[in-house]
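Quick one:
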Amino acid sequence: MSSIETGDLRVEEEVVEQASELHPDELYASKAEPWADWESRMVFFSIGLGVAGLVVLVTLINIFLL
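Output:
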């Protein structure tokens, strides 16, 4: 089991002090960071893959079950 050092306590106290200075709305609604280009491409690729999979599934259901 590790012991808490005085440096860790100081950092924790600073975090608590900074959080107490914020307005309650600022605690939960902080400004979002912008997405990187690869993250946007990954989201669009995932949505496209999901739509393509849905089309294939509907086609197979139409052929074999209906």
